[in-house]
Amino acid sequence: RGVLMKRKPAKTDLFLALFILLFGVFVYFFNVANPNTYERFNSATLSYEKARVLSIDAQTLREDSTVQGRYYGEQQITAKLLSGSRAGETVSVYNNLSTTHNVLLAEGQSFVACIDQPDQLDSYITVYNYYRTPVIYVMIFLFLAVMVLIGRMKGFKSAVGLLFTFATILFLMVPMIYHGYPPAFACILTVIVTTAVSLLLLNGASAKTLCATASTALGVVFAGMIFSVFALFFHISGFNTSEAENLILISQSTGLNIQDVLFASILIASLGAVMDVAMSISTALHEVVGHSPE
Question: Residue range 204-227: average pLDDT?
Answer without folding.
Answer: 81
